[in-house]
Amino acid sequence: MSHVAVVLAAGQGTRMKSELPKVLHEVAGRPMVSWVLEAVQATKPERLVVVVGHGADSVIDTLPEGVEWCIQEHRNGTGHATQIALDALGGVDGLDVLVMPGDTPLITGDALQELLDHHEERAAGVTMLTAELADPTGYGRVVRDADGVTAIVEHRDADDETRTIREINAGMYVFDGDTLAGDLASLRPENAQSELYLTDVIGVVAGRGQLVSAVVVPEEVVAGINTHEQLAQASAVARRRILSGLMLEGVSVVDPEHTYIDAGVEIAAGAVIHPGCHLSGATRVAAGAIVGPDVFAEDSVIGTGSRVWYSVLRGADVGANCDVGPYASLRPGAVLRSDAKAGTFVELKNAVVGEGAKVPHLSYMGDATVGAGANVGAGSITCNYDGYEKNVTEIGEGAFIGSSTMLVAPVTVGDGAVTGAGSVITNDVPAGDLGLERSQQRNIEGYAARRAERYRRTRSETDKEQ
Question: Which residue range is the domain that position 106 belongs to?
């Protein structure tokens, strides 16, 4: 049977102790509600509506195209939220209705499809996902008799005997759309929270003799998030799934327990990821690349055959067969063409390092172009900021920048030109020329001995005074 889907995402999540709406806290680089929506969309519902409330505008901004939303202005429980969703859908007769919480990021499309299929096969009035927990504290308990589920009792409303039940409600249901609206209308806020509980529909359906069925799934699949500890646990599971998928596709992950790959990161077969790597955003790693140990890369590209280790990349583009690090910082706009190098303690910002060019160590290139085959000596920097504006430095192809050269932008060093070590270059250096700026060295004969004698004399006078 065709179905529509409702995702309940109106709660504040007070136990998170955060101004951010609970469903927007990230799990492996993606808001938890996005994981839920991905799983729901895998079941191909005819329509999908998200109920928003706390931080509504922020939640709405994260919804993908084609997902509808409605607002629960006064949050009066899950039953009330579902009523609002049905009103937004404008009627669900002849359809199954999948209802989901927005804070269960580990749910999968396969589990939800199993739920839908089971509901149709059993011709149930309601079918729900459940799990058995070693410690079910805080969760609604599933009460059964010989025929099936008879009720869901929230933890705060349960007596001691009911709290011994280990089977818990996951908050994921498929309802018969022909009767759901009427069942919701019959709910009364007779509970500790004085709210309309969606779980009370279970008792209504069972009371009129319809089957309430349940599909038991592993605890991990239906884990909800109420605290930052649970958020961290869910992120660990999500990343484990991501790494498992990558390894099955041919990526070598040397130490999965200490490797952190977020959703959305693309890594080609044949790449090697060493421990301590944190890859996030739109990062892409090509085949044959070796990343790590200890690399943070966000929204960056690492090309075929490149080696990046002990470094930070943010919005950087590393071409093929490049060498980055150790301890390099590639900031937004940093581009390394093929066979280029950004070595030890090198920082690049809005800078293009041409094919085969090298910035080996202890240098800063900002707002700069380094031509193909050029070499930048140790300790050289572009002085790109004059206190008001950022200015550009251009280093030509095959140029040689001597160690500790200060390039005061705007300035150009031509193709094949050379700067002398320790120079402060304030004017353009034509192609093939040497740019040199130094005061003449002067050696003072006998200075060291006179300095030592002066020190001893001063020390002796000080001792006499004491």
Answer: 3-222
